[in-house]
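>> received
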Amino acid sequence: EVHYRAFSQELDAQLFPSFADYCCCQLLLQNISTSPYFLPQATWLIACATECCGTVQCSSFVAGQGTIQNVGVVPAHRGKGLGKALVLQALHAFRQLGFHRAVLEVTAENTPAYQLYQSLGFRTVQTLYRAPSP
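>> returned
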């Protein structure tokens, strides 16, 4: 539910149509969580006083490297540092697992996310172009 609420009305839902559909979000997260690459110890859900409001999932596809996936905060809770907290928790878990590298992908037009990742030391390595789905 949190993933859907965080992404369904965003540009990422145009790039990844599964983000715009509640059932597809459930299936996506089920697929991530049952993958042999899934890192439950680096996956978090933030609960605020009235609802769950932020989430991040992580995996490791390459030895010694963590992949941060789907950092999402529902719109009503943005701007409170929750995205940063999620990423920092994921990075902390990577370090505890002995990983020396973390990677992620971000939609370049998502300026707040892009700036957050830059402020945490991430740098652009590659730029890919993907047209929104019709």
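>> The first strand starts at residue 44 and ends at 47.
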